[in-house]
């Protein structure tokens, strides 16, 4: 395993950070790096399979034992973020007295064409990947408001650009785009910054879909897109030094990018089907005016401009 990237010395001193999916390929090195930077880490992990089946406390307890074995501060939490988010926040406040940052890393996945993914399966995905993240924010928000400080890092996925055989997963991860913008607007007056990140890493969740890659390509993917290679950027978003909110980022291979959620200037005169079909083609042009609104008012101002 690649060494955990070094964090700024004690940059999270006296900060309490909740990390869900803590024992996974990204969560584990992230928790260790946060603890080494001085954070009190609440490592939450149900210990289930990539599809959400089963539960085991062993992975997160082993992680916390490693962290505390270095003389650092961490507690293990095995509540299901999809159903018991408030209990995770209660554990953090009970032990450390505050919640400063939430990193919504937990996620499950189900592969298969749309006709095989039942609404019940999709509901389970949504409960963990989207509703769980929202519920954790909901429970922690009053604490962050009272402090006048908070950092939230939601997780989305590059799959929102389209990934076959994963409609439920993509729908849940896509839900984090708009809600991140909304929470950023609500949190601004209280010093709460909210961003979302789409990390790239080889993990149990992608093992099934990547197993048929040519051996050399698979080896490159494993070596390059490690969980550790996402850690510095995620920590930056969760840090006190960060001043940016409401953005969509992507990470992996020790690189960082930004994903745009934008609007293209509309076309008037669509009184008929034929005119609307023509407009659709025009709107796919590369040179048309566009904007990147961060709120409904900004979007409406853009649409109203002649």
UniProtKB/TrEMBL annotation:
It comes from the Eukaryota. The keyword Oxidoreductase applies. Belongs to the short-chain dehydrogenases/reductases (SDR) family. The keyword Oxidoreductase applies. It comes from Thyridium curvatum. Keywords: Oxidoreductase. SUPFAM superfamilies: NAD(P)-binding Rossmann-fold domains (SSF51735). This is Ketoreductase domain-containing protein. One of its GO terms (molecular function) is oxidoreductase activity. Residues 15-200 form the Ketoreductase domain. InterPro entries: KR_dom (IPR057326), NAD(P)-bd_dom_sf (IPR036291), Peroxisomal_Beta-Oxidation (IPR051687), SDR_fam (IPR002347).
């Amino acid at each position: 395993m690649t060494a955990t990237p070094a964090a700024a010395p004690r940059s999270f001193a006296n900060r309490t950070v909740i990390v869900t999916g803590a024992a996974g390929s990204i969560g584990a090195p992230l928790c260790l790096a946060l603890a080494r930077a001085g954070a009190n880490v609440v490592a939450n992990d149900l210990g289930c399979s990539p599809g959400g089946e089963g539960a085991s406390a062993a992975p997160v307890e082993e992680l916390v034992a490693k962290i505390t074995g270095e003389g650092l501060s961490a507690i293990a939490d095995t509540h299901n973020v999809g159903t018991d988010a408030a209990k995770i926040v209660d554990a953090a406040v009970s032990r450390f007295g505050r919640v400063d940052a939430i990193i919504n890393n937990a996620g499950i996945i189900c592969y298969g064409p749309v006709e095989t993914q039942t609404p019940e399966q999709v509901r389970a995905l949504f409960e963990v990947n989207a509703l769980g993240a929202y519920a954790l924010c909901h429970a922690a928000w009053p604490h962050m408001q009272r402090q006048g400080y908070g950092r939230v890092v939601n997780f989305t996925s590059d799959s929102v650009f389209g990934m076959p055989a994963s409609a439920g997963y993509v729908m849940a991860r896509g839900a984090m785009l708009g809600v991140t913008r909304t929470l950023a607007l609500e949190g601004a007056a209280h010093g709460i910054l909210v961003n979302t990140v789409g990390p790239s890493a080889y993990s149990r969740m992608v093992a099934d879909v990547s197993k048929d890659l040519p051996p050399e390509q698979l080896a490159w993917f494993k070596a390059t897109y490690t969980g550790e290679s996402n850690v510095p950027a995620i920590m930056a978003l969760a840090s006190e030094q960060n001043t940016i909110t409401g953005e969509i980022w992507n990470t992996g291979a020790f690189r960082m990018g930004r994903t745009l959620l934008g609007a293209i200037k509309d076309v008037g005169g669509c009184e008929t089907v034929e005119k609307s079909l023509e407009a659709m083609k025009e709107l796919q042009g590369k040179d048309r005016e566009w904007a990147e609104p961060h709120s409904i008012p900004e979007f409406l101002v853009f649409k109203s401009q002649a």
